[in-house]
Design brief:
Elements (H helix, E strand, L loop, with lengths): L1 H4 L4 H9 L14 E7 L2 E7 L6 E9 L2 E9 L3 H7 L7 H14 L1
Antiparallel strand pairs: 1-2, 2-3, 3-4
The structure holds zinc ion.
Length: 106
């Protein structure tokens, strides 16, 4: 019952496991982390380091008594992450066009 009551904010608990900024090793503060997307058990969280201001995106999945997280350093701020999350992924054709554009112009 307790886990259910806390479910909405349980991704905040996961921050204790993510712990430190991978750039400067400063401990993450809860108030620097914001949820920007949620689907079923998966939470996408954006964190800005309070010391070096680098940005980090983590996907935190909470299942029963356990949790799993995967993250990456990014140059996206919170609003960028929130907007880009909704855009469609690149297609193979777009990637080939981008490659050809660069080859032709440089
Ligand atoms: Zn840092």
């Amino acid at each position: 019952m307790l886990a259910k009551n806390n479910r909405g904010e349980s991704w905040l608990e996961a921050l204790k496991f993510i712990g430190h900024c991978p750039i400067c090793n400063h401990r993450y503060e809860e108030n620097r982390a914001k949820l920007f997307a949620k689907q079923d058990a998966a939470n996408l969280v954006h964190i800005t380091c309070g010391k070096c201001s680098s940005n980090f995106i983590a996907m935190i999945v909470i299942m029963g008594q356990g949790l799993s997280s995967v993250g990456m350093v990014t140059d996206l701020n919170f609003n960028d992450a929130k907007q880009l999350y909704k855009t469609a992924p690149l297609t193979v054709d777009e990637i080939i066009s981008g490659y050809q554009f660069i080859q032709k112009n440089y």
